[in-house]
# Entry
Amino acid sequence: MAIFTDDLLNGNVTADGQDFFVGLNQFSTQLTNLETNLTNLRNNFTDLALTTVASTSQTQLNNVIAVRDKVSYIPQGGTTTGAMTLSYTNPIDGSTGSIASTFRTILGSHTATTSLVGGLYTAIDQVAINIKTLKDNAKVFSDN
# Structure
């Protein structure tokens, strides 16, 4: 009877040694672990489904969008329409002038996907789209 009770509580191998069966103690531990893991999963889905600023995933999405928008300004010198120019004062005669930057030509526009800035902008935009899609799908999943 003692061996039966021990096997029931702690598990053992079958008579031929080929299979192992779990005892009630280990089964109970695994069910507790499952409950903890499901709670963590539920909390993560809840965060993904939220669109408030308090949501970690929403903050990350907002940050990615902000970076994407700033990347679009790189060739324009930080403005939506301006060109990057170097303004200078001649040290010899005090005259002033400016030179248009070649960065705009070299870096390209965020709308031209084959340019340097365009490629970076497109990649960051895709990350934002993926996070948004993940959040939308998590909301649908958690609502059902």
